[in-house]
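Schema walk-through. Below, the input block comes first and the output block second. Nothing else is stored per chain. Lengths vary across the set, and this one has 470 residues.
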Amino acid sequence: MIPSPFLSRRTALHRFGCGFGSLALAGLLGQNRPATGSQPAPHLPPKAKRVIFLFMAGGVSQVDSFDYKPALFQHDGQMREFADLRALQRGEKTAPKFRVMKPLWEFKQRGQSGLWTSDLFPSIAGHMDDICLLRSMHTEGVAHGPATLFLHTGAANFIRPSMGSWLLYGLGSESENLPGFVSIGPSLGNGGPRNYGNAFLPARFQGTALGRAGAPLKEIAFRNISASRPPEAARRQFELQQVLNAEQLEPGDTQLEAVLQSYELAWRMQSHAPNVVDIQRESAATRALYGIDEKGTDDFGRKCLMARQLSESGVRFVQVNYALNSSSNPAWDQHSNMPQHAVHAQAVDKPIAGLLADLKARGLLKDTIVWWGGEFGRTPYAEKNGTGRDHNPGGFTMWVAGGGFRPGHSHGATDEFGHYAIEDKVHMHDLHATLLHQLGLDHEKLTYRHDGRDYRLTDVHGDVVRDILA
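--- output ---
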């Protein structure tokens, strides 16, 4: 008689019991071992536990939003010389002249802090007393691809782990039942999966994508979560699968180890994930706070509410992408039509303000960092003397809220036209270092050995910006 190629569950467990036991033991030990493999705990007392990064792909104009420059109104329409970065790259020896372009939205001082912000974001403007403005940001890369990659990974010309992966590597996940790093609606362009990738870090630190830019809202969900099979039958299948896979696991095989861990996580997610990102379980008042079911704000409102649900459930790094589609022309990239900024602002303004209010009301803002911004800003002059603004990595604005940052505070400054950062400059490496610091990680100690050298998110650069810490 020819033996059956299929094993009963009883036979499989009998034959492979030691392998399965070893796998289970390894899993239990893994829960208690340091996340980095060498650090028993965070390097520093953490001020925050998690991050929600609101990525505005394309580059919001700082001089139209959070960086008030009266000189732009005074010299509007005048032709002036600007040391344009693209011209310098082309080797031009004299600074070209461009037409100064005033902001299209009125600026006002807001809240008790009196921070200047424009009417482009009227709802966010109501939360300036909770926000720390970084008005002297500068970064690497003039084009979207390199600058976006640099924002996410700290490098523009090499495959490096994304910040979310570094954070997960350094601290581990807060939840056994959900991924530790989630990117909602990421774009396929300008870095694509590398923006949430693990690169040379072990595969288990890769981010989990929910949907993609431009996809229908129904696709913004954990895929392949099903409760159609009876729980006991599903468990038997899972146990047998893990037993068989464990027999193939050899010491040092991080790829297969990551696969087995992903299967275990997927198994736990079957019963936990569907209830986490369920918009319907929220009250009507909460849904209205985020602009859900309202024209123009429903899409991003749902994503922001999902971010709060995921963060509240233990996801350590959640990125919410506003990119519109997966092409190489991201949402905020207005080279010839600055009024289009208003359309995008209307889509994100109420949801972001709702997120800040919701986190604060739930007591989550104090240990959650909300980080807002794009890969660079825009020029204070009209591109080709038209109606739009060009890319500007030399001086732009980002903001952070919660997580131990100084509320109602403005740090640094650009020149009188808002073109270049000149006072208390903050490089992207500095911001990465500061974010890690607030999460209890020393950016100089958070390293990983690869190809004979120690790598880190900030490479060999970066300083913690202590003036913005509460």
